[in-house]
Design goal:
Number of helices of chain A: 8
Distance between the termini of chain A: 22 Å
Oligomer: homodimer
Shape of chain A: globular
Largest sheet of chain A: 5 strands, antiparallel
Strand content of chain A: 15-25%
Largest interface: A-B, 52 and 52 residues
Number of strands of chain A: 12
Radius of gyration of chain A: 18 Å
Chain lengths: ~250, ~250
DNA sequence: CGCGTGCTTGAAGCGGGTCAACAACAGTGG
DNA sequence: CCACTGTTGTTGACCCGCTTCAAGCACGCG
C-alpha cells in the first residue's frame, strides 16, 4: 500500500454530498479533518489488515470495494461483510488486542487514515461524533445479524437473492448505482459463494436457475434488479430500507 | 415483565466483583447509578424485546440467560447470540428506529434498565464510559464474526464443539461455572440447533457421536469440558481467551 | 500463441433435512 | 394416586440439497 498526505479535505469529501449521509456541523467536520492522518491507496487484491496482525489505524473507505473475512486453519474462508465507500473499519480491531479477521481490497481503494490513539480524544471532545462511531458499529452488527439469518436459515436461492438485493441497497447508499440501475460488482462468484457459505458450484448453478426467472440481470459483473418486489419475496426478506447515517 | 426500583446499587453490583470486569472509577460508577432507571424482572420464556417493535430502553443483564434471534416470514428461526450476565443489550435497537430482532429470556432474568434518552448524556459527560459502550458493541461484533464463520464454514461436529466451548468460555466470564467446571445451560437442543443453523435431529445425532469421544460431558443441561485442548481442536478453533472488559 | 483466471455444466456421493415413532419426565387435574 | 398431556430427548428410514470431482469454455494478457 501507498500512503501520502490527505489530498481530500474532509469539508470537500465527495461522500458527504450523498443524500444518505447525515449532515455534520462545520465544527465536527473540522475535528474530523484534524483526526485524519492522511490517505492510503491500496491495490486490488491487496491486504488492508492481515488476519492475526495488529494495526494501529482506523479507516474510512473513500472509494473502491473491500471485504472482511475469517479463515479456518485448513483454509476454508468465510467472507463476513463487504466494505463500501463511507464505511468505517477497524473499530473491532482497535478495541481488541489482536485482529481476528482480515480485510482485503477487491478493487483499487482509497482510504482515509485515522489515528487509533486519537480515538479517545474524539470521545472526549466530540461526543456527538462518538455517538456516530457507535452508531456505525451498531449498523455493522445489524448487517451481520441479517447475514447470520441468511446463512443459518435460508436455502441457496434465497441466500443469493438476499445477498444481491443487499449489495444493491448498499451500492445505492454509496452512490455506486448508475442511472440505469446498474451496479458493478467487483467480486468473483467464488467471493460470493464464500460470503454465503456455499460451494462455488452450487452458487453458480443456483444463480443460473435464478437468472431464468428474469427478476434480475447479473452477468459480466453487472447487476440490475428488474423487479425489486419479487426479489425481496424470493429472498424471504422484509425489505426494510436504510435511513440517514453518519460519516466519519 | 415486572419493574420496580433499583434494589441493587451499582457500587454493590455483584458482577463488578468478577475478575474479568475492568475497574471503573468511583465517579463512573456514580454516573452509572444515575443512568440506571431501575430493575426489571422477567420470567423464563418471556419476551424482552419483540421483533419489529420499538423499545426506549437499554439493559444490562444482571442475572439469568436470554437470547437474541431473528425469524423468517415462514417461521424459521435463527438464534443470533446469547445474553449472559454483564452483557449490555439494546444498542442496535436504540440507534435504529425499528427493532429487527427479538430478545427472549431463557430463565428468569433480572435486568438493569437504562434510559435511552440519557445515552447522549453519557456520551457528553462520560467519554470513558462511552468508549466502554462502544467496546461492548465491538465485542458483540467479534462474537457474531466467529458465529458466522461457524455456520458458514464449519461442519456440524465442529459447530457443536465450537458453540459448547464458546458458551463455556462466556459462562466462565460471567461467573456461572462452578468449582467442578460444570456450567448449567438453560437452553434446549432446539435452541442450540437454531443457533447453529442445524435441524434438531442432526444436532442430536451429531451430539451423540461427539459425546462418545469423551472430550466433554453434556447431559441434563449440565456441561463440563474434560479436555479443552481437544475440544478446541475438534472445533477447528484457535482458542483465544477473552481479556478484561467493561461493565455498564 | 499459450497460459491463467473465472465461469459453466455434468455426474456421483454424502451430510444434513424431513418424517415418524417412541421414551423419559414433569405438571395437571380427576 | 394415577391417567392424561405437553415438552424434551433419542433413534431409525428415507430423501434431497449441496459438495466434490472433473472437464470444457471464454476471455484477457504477456
Amino acid at each position: 500500500m501507498n500512503g501520502d498526505g490527505g489530498q481530500t479535505p474532509c469539508r470537500a469529501c465527495p461522500l458527504r454530498r450523498l443524500p444518505l449521509f447525515a449532515n455534520a456541523t462545520s465544527a465536527e467536520v473540522d475535528f474530523i479533518e484534524t483526526f485524519k492522518m492522511g490517505e492510503l491507496h491500496g491495490k486490488a487484491g491487496g491486504t488492508i489488515y492481515l488476519e492475526g496482525a495488529t494495526s494501529p489505524h482506523l479507516f474510512t473507505l473513500l472509494s473502491g470495494w473491500a471485504f472482511r473475512y475469517k479463515t479456518l486453519p485448513d483454509g476454508r474462508r468465510q467472507i463476513l461483510n463487504y466494505v463500501l465507500p463511507g464505511d468505517f473499519i477497524g473499530l473491532q480491531t482497535t478495541l481488541a488486542e489482536t485482529l481476528d479477521h482480515g480485510i482485503e481490497a477487491l478493487t483499487d481503494v482509497r482510504l482515509c487514515v485515522f489515528s487509533r490513539d486519537r480515538l479517545a480524544d474524539l470521545f472526549r471532545n466530540q461526543p456527538s461524533l462518538a455517538l456516530d462511531v457507535t452508531w456505525l458499529a451498531a449498523r455493522d452488527e445489524r448487517i451481520l445479524d441479517d447475514h447470520l439469518l441468511s446463512i443459518g436459515r435460508r436455502r441457496s436461492r434465497e441466500r443469493i437473492a438476499y445477498l444481491l438485493w443487499h449489495l444493491m441497497t448498499r451500492g445505492r447508499e454509496s452512490g455506486l448505482v448508475d442511472d440505469d440501475g446498474v451496479l458493478v460488482l467487483p467480486m468473483t462468484q467464488q467471493h460470493l459463494a464464500d460470503t454465503l457459505g456455499l460451494s462455488l458450484v452450487t452458487f453458480n448453478k443456483t444463480l443460473q436457475r435464478l437468472r431464468a426467472t428474469g427478476i434480475f440481470v447479473f452477468g459480466d459483473r453487472r447487476l440490475k434488479i428488474v423487479d425489486e418486489a419479487k426479489m425481496i419475496a424470493v429472498a424471504a426478506a422484509d425489505g426494510v430500507r436504510p435511513r440517514s447515517r453518519p460519516l466519519i
